Amino acid sequence: RGNGQSIIAGYPWFADWGRDTFIAIRGLCIARGNFDKATSILLQWADSVSYGMLPNRFPDAGDEPEFNSVDASLWFIIAVHDLCEAAARSGHPITDPDSARLWNAASEIVSRYSSGARHGIRMDTDGLLACGEPGVQLTWMDARVGDRVITPRTGKPVEVQALWVNALTALSAREPCWSAVADRATASFRERFWNQARGCLFDVVDVDHEHGSADATVRPNQILAIGGLPIQLLTGPRAESVLKVVEQELLTPAGLRSLAPGEPGYTPRYRGGPAERDSAYHQGTVWPWLIGPFVEAWLRVHGSTRTIRQEANARFIQP
Fold first, then answer.
1. What percentage of the chain exceeds 90 in pLDDT?
2. Among 52, 77, 221, 294, which has the minimal tally of Cβ within 10 Å of its Cβ?
3. Residue 186 and residue 172: Cα distance in Å, rounded?
4. Is 0.70 topped by the overall pTM?
5. Burial of 45 (0-12, 13-18, 19+ CB in 10 A)
6. Residue 173 contacts by C-beta under 8 Å, 6 or more apart in sequence?
7. Host H or E run for residue 40
8. Nearest Cα to Cα of residue 74 among 4, 171, 207
9. Separation of alpha carbons 270 and 274, rounded Å
10. 134/120 Cα distance (integer angstroms)
11. Model pLDDT, residue 235
């Protein structure tokens, strides 16, 4: 599409996907100091904001882009924040015009999310971000078989709140009006997502937009409240407890399980035809990308000393 650059989600099967691009760019480009390429990629996407949303994918055949992701736009803001911070630290900040284009896109996303975007995305009175409607899968757990959404997660998913607070905090450095909103969302998160019975976080609250309901299923999404994002929403004993549950229930040598063994619907093998595989995709299948947020959470809880970092490398990265 024109002269811009992007990241291919799964060559040769998939073209560029928003969520995948903004998660991967932080390691592929920004952490490696390739700021010019990161800027080019993010600018290419910044021009695609529509009603506050970035596409989750551009179809290979050139059809209209698909806007069916609540988190892709928030991951974009995290990537913009990381790029600007890293480039400034290097002594070679990105240009003012490029910075303005990127942050204008971020502002449009947050403003529209707060007032209401597609698919029921809106900021609720508690400052948290609600999303979802029947038949639509908006989070990264987006598998479906025919018309059946395997993990709809309609309501207020836990990792979406972590991304939302981080996006609000990043933008508030340029637009201070969002600072109080970030504080309110953080307070609501800590009050509403803690599952005292299991010592971890609920996966979704206000399930199907029913206030007060909660999904206590143990999934890895809660790790993003501790690691993987600039702002840590949970600290102290609760962070320690979440990390312990995730490590005991979800950690494998290849990444984190998408669902804890023993939970309803847990599927220990990813195999069979397309329908069988898609049904297992987020119901126990291990995802390697989650090891990054997990290790960062582990370091934040245990202290990022040289010895602790060496232990984390030996225990979690090398296997």
1. 88
2. 52
3. 14
4. yes
5. buried
6. none
7. helix 35-46
8. 171
9. 10
10. 10
11. 96
